[in-house]
Design a protein that fits this description.
This protein is α/β, with parallel strands linked by helices. The chain contains 14 helices and 18 strands. The structure holds pyridoxal-5'-phosphate (PLP). The site of pyridoxal-5'-phosphate has 11 residues, from α9 and β9. Pyridoxal-5'-phosphate binds next to α9 and β9.
Length: about 425
């Protein structure tokens, strides 16, 4: 059959207006929790401005709504991993500073000037490309990244001063920042984080001694872990920024770190019961028949699976909150579904759960994201980033004075319009 002979189907609108209600799984993001977290973090940062990290769709929370609410809370510095993420924010109306943390391709710097983005200079080649590309009328804003021990991106502390000096005198370049990144700041009392910080401080002292004209607009080193474990010394620079990501979303790398600040998890992940069955003792459940009912059991099928970001590795370990009780996920987690053992069919719980009822996979009133991360042998970052795009995001904002504040932020300010 020749390809051209296949008729093109007419365009059909397959998205009814309330299509999200047809999806059995929801990620609800509490923007009020994000407002709370940003206030807590700002207090922690003791006068250093926050640079809000909204890469990977704001760690799965939705980059545009999260950036809007952060702007509303006074945040004016944002960072993403890749230029495309920054373009999305610009096109949604964000007029604040946006740093792209990833390394640029030296041949593709146009996007930075076209969209007024701050660029990471991570090598001498990137610095030369920046010097060639920038024009006094349309300067390229650069943040020079120094590798003090992360081993990922950046200039060595030895080569950085020369590169920074050349950039500082380039007419088409604005030295917007000098920065580094910690490898081990999530570990309380990390000696290596202190070593990295000392290397960075030595570099700043060297720049200071070399020339008075070298004054980056900002200096930044701290991520959430450094802010919570090391504290003041990680932002004791001139014009400091604190790059905080995970804590904005009310999380930290571990539950232990979380306990160091009053953070409120913003995301709640829920799924509805799509089917119920009562099975005899010995009945196998799900792929591989790995689990068999130990007694007559009421089994609920939830409309959520690894295709939504509920990790398959949590099979045999996970639990959910349903009908007011914590119940185990049984059998292998499938792509679109998983099964929950409600217990013997005559218990009040087993008798009361109905199709359409909601189970909490993580979030307030349910297991925490730390629980899910430990069942899946990973970190909370990977869980929230992994909630797939097919999961509808629903936003709530419980903060009382929200309406008043949104009325004040007039759309004519050239920045985000109200939610
Ligand atoms: C992701 C990232 C951050 C934010 O880290 P958190 O642990 O989420 O605070 C900060 N800096 C860089 C360079 C990053 O890539």
């Amino acid at each position: 059959m020749r390809i051209e002979s296949i008729p093109v189907p007419p365009t059909i609108d397959c998205s009814p207006p309330d299509k999200d209600t047809l999806v059995p799984v929801t990620a609800t993001v509490d923007l009020g929790a994000i407002r709370h977290n940003v206030r807590v973090l700002r207090e922690r940062a003791e006068g250093a401005d926050l640079m809000a990290i909204v890469k990977a769709d704001a760690y799965g929370h939705g980059a545009v709504p999260v950036t809007r609410v952060l702007h509303d809370e006074g945040v004016r510095h944002f960072a993403v991993a890749r230029p495309a993420e920054a373009v999305e924010l610009r096109e949604a109306g964000c007029g604040d500073r946006i740093l792209v943390l990833g390394a640029p391709f030296p041949d593709d710097l146009g996007v930075y000037t076209d969209y007024d983005l701050d660029m990471t200079v991570s090598s001498a080649d990137a610095a030369e490309a920046a010097r060639r590309h920038g024009r006094p009328a349309r300067p390229l804003r650069v943040h020079v990244k120094v590798d003090t021990g992360m081993g990922r991106l950046g200039l060595s502390p030895e080569e950085a001063p020369g590169v920074i000096a050349r950039l500082a005198e380039a007419p088409g370049v604005v030295l917007a920042g000098v920065w580094t990144h910690f490898a081990t700041a999530d570990e309380p009392e990390s000696a290596f984080a202190q070593t990295q910080l000392s290397r960075f401080e030595a570099l700043l002292a060297e720049l200071d001694a070399a020339a008075a004209e070298i004054r980056p607009e900002h200096v930044h080193a701290a991520n959430t872990g450094a802010l919570l474990t090391i504290g003041a010394r990680t932002h004791a620079f001139p014009a400091p920024l604190v790059r905080t990501g995970i804590a904005l979303y009310g999380l930290a790398a571990s539950a232990e770190l979380h306990a160091r600040a009053d953070l409120r998890p913003a995301m709640r992940f829920t799924a509805r019961v799509t089917h119920l069955q009562t099975v005899d003792a010995g009945t196998p459940i799900s792929y591989g028949a790995q689990w068999r009912a130990p007694r007559r059991s009421r089994i609920a099928t939830l409309g959520v699976g690894y295709g939504d970001g509920y990790p398959r590795l949590a099979s045999g370990r996970a639990a959910v909150r349903i009908g007011g009780e914590e119940r185990p996920v049984v059998g292998t987690i499938c792509m679109d579904m998983c099964m929950v053992d409600l217990g013997p069919p005559d218990t009040p719980l087993a008798r009361s759960v109905e199709v359409g009822d909601e189970a909490v996979l993580f979030g307030p009133d349910g297991p925490t994201m730390y629980d899910v991360a430990s069942w899946a042998e990973t970190i909370p970052y990977e869980i929230c980033c992994g909630i797939s795009p097919r999961v509808p995001r629903r936003y709530t904002d419980a903060s009382e004075d929200r309406d008043a504040r949104l009325r004040e932020s007039s759309p004519s300010s050239g920045n985000f319009s109200p939610l």
